[in-house]
Amino acid sequence: EEDPVAMFRFAESEMLFAYVLVPVLMALAWWAHTRKQRDMERLADRHLLERLTATVSRRGQLAKTILLLSAIGLLVTALARPQFGSRIETVRREGRDVLIALDLSASMVAEDMAPNRLEKAKFAIADLIDRLDGDRVGLVGFAGDAFVQSPLTLDYGAARLFLNAMDPEIMSVQGTNLGLAVSVALDAFASTDRRHRVLVVITDGEDHEGEVDDAIERAADEGVVIYTVGIGSTDGVPIPDLDAAGRAQGFKRDDAGSVVTTRLDEATLRSMAARTGGVYYRASAGGTELALLAEELAGGDGQEFESEQVTLFDEQYQLFLGLALALLMAEVLVPDRRRVHAGWTGRFR
User: Fold this and answer.
1) Please, which residues bridge with residue 198 across strands?
2) Which is deepest, 25, 55, 304, 347, by most CB within 10 Å?
3) What does the alpha-carbon distance between residue 274 and residue 276 come to, in Å, rounded to a whole number?
4) Does the pTM of the predicted model rise above 0.70?
């Protein structure tokens, strides 16, 4: 849409202060010229000086100076980005609502993935957030309980800050309740378009509460697609027992004194994804599964989140830049010397 009112402005108006260079350079040029004349007059008498400078073109030198200063002024104008005319366009932002549920249970500190399951998952989530483009993203933390760590937002920097703060110590109830995690995420999706909601669950899959079936059925009914990422080994591995400083002090043990082990439960995660139209990914050391997940999310249609009218101005700096270059070329071509026709009469006598 064209704006009927033509407008003029400088996009970088602070660059106009550089115009002060023009009078400063003029003053320096005049000072250099007068000093040169004074020094030459001290070295030779007036008649000899006139003969030595007979080929100097005062007009040529003046023209070259004027051309150079004019080119500098035009370059300053170009740097200030003059804009003539404007138009109004409607800018729309589209994308999906993506909630990422991260398991914060004690089993996520197992070290079968370096440096441990949780840190590996957080690195993968940060990479996934970096790959999103126009999608709103939110975070849900869960163990035996679940809560929204970061509401849906387009501010990826804020989401990464909330992600860094996610740790098992912030969970008041330990265990792994996948069903509650899904239910809390579904509640966070309230008032969004049902066609564009995605839940990514990153966990070792050990559900200790058995409430996941009802939550998955609700997700399928509400049109939420669940992608699951399994992290950890399918073989039983011990869970480090960490002190207050985060240092390992052996391994966790049950009431009978036996070492507690944890293993990835892929069957539950595959079922969650399949029943809602999603995909299950097994986390690997290289982290390529999150890249595949990001491509999967980017391939779908998004919903419109924002729509606003903005005024766009037409850049016209090219005109001033072109004129400045033309003047610089002209300055090079203008001679500062002139031809002098000397008489030969009497030279050979």
Assistant:
1) 98, 225
2) 25
3) 6
4) no
